[in-house]
Amino acid sequence: MKKSRIPMIWVVVALMFAMVLPARAQTVLTLEECREKAVENNNSLKVSQEKVKMAGYEKKAAFSNYLPKVSAQGAYMYNGRPLQLVSDAQLEALGSVGTMVQGGLDASVSQLIQNMMQNPTVFTNEVVQQMMQELFKTFGNTGLEESLNAIGAEVGEALKIDTRNIYAAMVSVEEPIYVGGKVRAYHQITKYAEELAKTQMTAEEQEIVLATDKAYWQIVSLANKLKLTENYVEMLRKMASDVDKLVNEGMATESDRLAIKVKLNDAELTLVKVNNGLALSKMLLCQTCGLPLDTALSLADESLDDVVVPNFETAYTEDEIIRDRPELYCLELASKISDKKVNIVRSEFLPTVAAMGNVIVTNPSCFNGFQNQFQGFVNVGVVARVPVFHFGEGMNKIRKAQSEANIARITLEDTKQKIMLQVNQYERQIKEAESRMSLTSDKMSDAEENLRIANIGFMEGIVPSSTLDSAQTAWMQAHSEYIDAKIELIMANTYFKKSIGKLSR
User: Fold this and answer.
1) CATH C-level class of 30-67+179-350+387-499
2) Handedness of CA 410, 416, 418, 421 (dihedral sign)
3) Domain ranges (residues) in the chain
4) Under a CB-based contact definition with an 8 Å cutoff, are residues 232 and 472 in contact?
5) CA separation (Å) from 281 to 23, 35, 435?
6) For 235-240, which contacts have Cβ atoms below 8 Å and span 24 or more sequence positions?
7) Could you say which of 47, 273, 399, 436 would form a disulfide bridge with 485 (CB–CB 3.0 to 4.6 Å)?
8) Do residues 178 and 352 make contact, with C-beta atoms less than 8 angstroms apart?
9) CB-count exposure of residue 413 (10 Å: 0-12, 13-18, 19+)
10) Is this prediction's pTM over 0.90?
11) DSSP string of 314-372?
12) Type and span of the H or E element at 161
């Protein structure tokens, strides 16, 4: 017998742990904690954060347009043949220029001597011989032919340039002086775009907070309705047991017993539906908060009776709403961006002026003859561009940009009106929800008292089961309506805060 008891003990212990462990694993979250987790773990919001970073980088890039642009270029080229400024025949002639000059001189001297000998009265033989000796001493023994041939050869080599390997490098600097206001307009656009990205992120964060609140209070509503339905089922089960006794005693009919069983079956089915709805709502909240879907959640406000509905405050102005609503600020920024785009389009058809400078280095170089070495030069200047005629392109583009700016302004004004209408609607919804909660609270008290009296009358046998059934149904409906009214009032306040731009985590 002792051997059979040991396994049973372990079974009991296992069951106790199975009941205790889930309770310990429960995650209790407040509304503020759910909001924080939802904002922290939302992927769409992470994308928006990256968009803010992108806009910041774009603004920094736009500011750099005020600064000079420095660029460097380098090139190398190989040619199959060197560059030669003269032909081969001309090169050969340059190499024998001394020989040609010497030949010409010799012919000239010979002709001179011949002319002198034809006039013996003036040039005697002695004089001619003496002059010939001097001429041959001057032109024949100086090495003129060899010198001139050498010079011609050097000139020919100088005219042959080794351009098989060509190197070039350039560093350019350009500074815009006037570009029609484009640089300033673009920089302002990027500043507005950064603010727009931040505001869009704020708007998205408010939407996430709103979705979190809806999921949170949906769970609170279903959790309270689950308790309510469980109590209602217990009531019906007790009533079914009492009716069975009355039927056995002949004080109730079979029809009464069947009617209460049908009512009990419907209530049990409702209990299953509410339980399933609660489970799905918790999964939705887990998904919104970035938690595993199977996380065992328990909310701090599940006891709806302890939840205090905040007082409704109407202390706001239209200017405050326009300032605080991120959607309006987004449209205002979009309108400003459209205005600056008009300036950019206009600048495309205005004169532009820019200062420029270059440092250029080449090999071969030609600054001191053609040499195979790196040499360079510097140039500076001003570049101006003046559009003359574009067949009306500029005017039409400007008008198009102005129309886009007008659309942005009209959209902004229209949205302002719609938002103010939305604010008034939520104001009325709050007042209506307050009235409904007050009425349902009174109705719930009346239903409680009616059920108490019906129970006493049924136990004393003076009230039929149908009357008690009706009282229970009225009790169930009154409590359910009260839960709906309180949740509706809470959400009406939430929607109103969002409508005036005050909803935040």
Assistant:
1) mainly alpha
2) negative
3) 30-67+179-350+387-499, 69-82+165-172+351-386, 83-161
4) yes
5) 19, 16, 28
6) 235/472, 236/260, 236/263, 236/264, 236/267, 236/472, 237/264, 239/458, 239/465, 239/468, 239/469, 239/472, 240/264
7) 436
8) yes
9) exposed
10) no
11) ----HHHHHHH-HHHHHHHHHHHHHHHHHHHHHHTTS-EEEEEEEEEEEESB-SSSSBS
12) strand 160-161
Calpha distance 260→77 (Å, rounded): 102
CB 127 within 8 A of CB 113: no
Q: How many CB atoms lie within 10 A of CB 492?
A: 22
Sole residue written with tokens 């006891």:
303
The contacts of residue 350 (CB under 8 Å, 6+ apart) are: 179, 180, 181, 387
Residue 423 in tokens = 């604010």
pLDDT tens-digit profile, the chain (505 residues): 334 343 444 333 333 434 444 444 578 899 999 999 999 998 888 899 999 999 999 988 888 888 888 899 999 888 877 766 666 666 566 556 566 665 665 566 566 656 655 665 555 556 556 666 665 555 554 566 666 666 666 665 666 666 778 888 999 998 888 888 888 888 999 999 999 999 999 999 999 999 999 999 999 999 999 999 999 999 999 988 988 888 888 787 888 889 889 999 999 999 999 999 999 999 999 999 999 998 898 999 988 888 888 776 667 788 888 888 998 999 999 999 999 989 888 888 888 898 989 999 988 887 776 677 888 889 898 988 888 877 888 788 888 889 999 999 999 999 999 999 999 999 999 999 999 999 999 999 999 999 999 989 888 888 888 888 899 999 999 999 999 999 999 999 999 999 988 887 6
Cα-based angle 504, 488, 319 (whole degrees, multiple of 5): 45
H/E segment holding residue 453? helix 393-459
Contacts of 253 (CB under 8 A, 6+ apart): 247
d(CA 69, CA 78): 31
- Is the peptide bond between 364 and the residue preceding it cis, with omega within 30 degrees of 0? yes
